[in-house]
Amino acid sequence: MIKPITRSEFESFWPVFSRVIQAQETYAFAPDMALEQAYELWCELPLRTFVYVEQGEVLGSYYIKANAAGPGSHVCNCGYMVSEQARGKGIAQALCEHSRQQALALGFKAMQFNSVVSTNEVAVRLWQKLGFDIVGRVPGAYRHARLGYVDTFVMYKWLADEG
C-alpha cells in the first residue's frame, strides 16, 4: 500500500535511509546526516512524500517536488528509496508509477531526475523501462565510495500526454 508518510513511518524508515546515504553509492546526501535533517529534506521540503507499507513495515518511500521555479515549475523531481530486503520485488516500479499519477494530479507535465548515478544500473534500467530517457551525462559528478568519481545521468520523461 502506498500512502502519505507520517513522522513515525519516517522514523521507522530511518535505518534504511541512513544506510543508503552512508553507502555513498546513489544519493548525494551527507553520509552523517541526522534524522531531523533527513526528515526535513525528505518529508518537509517536498510537496508530498509517500511510503510503501506492507504488513506494517515501511519498505520504500519517495518524495515529489517541483524541479525548478517559475517557467520550469511544470517539471517535477522525485527521489526514491527501497529497503534492501524489498529490492527486486517491484516496489521501486510501483513507487515510480504512483509518483507519475501524483505528478499528473498535481499539474506537472514532465518528470526529471537530475542526478542518477551511472553505476546504479538497476535504477537506470528501471527508469528506462518506465519511459525515461537519458538526456544528459555529467562526467565525474558523483564521488562513489568504492569506485571513485563516476558519471551521473539526467533522465527525463514527458508526462502530459499520459493523463
UniProtKB/TrEMBL annotation:
<dbReference type="InterPro" id="IPR016181">
    <property type="entry name" value="Acyl_CoA_acyltransferase"/>
</dbReference>
<dbReference type="InterPro" id="IPR000182">
    <property type="entry name" value="GNAT_dom"/>
</dbReference>
<dbReference type="Pfam" id="PF00583">
    <property type="entry name" value="Acetyltransf_1"/>
</dbReference>
<feature type="domain" description="N-acetyltransferase">
    <location>
        <begin position="1"/>
        <end position="160"/>
    </location>
</feature>
<dbReference type="InterPro" id="IPR052742">
    <property type="entry name" value="Mito_N-acetyltransferase"/>
</dbReference>
<protein>
    <submittedName>
        <fullName>N-acetyltransferase family protein</fullName>
    </submittedName>
</protein>
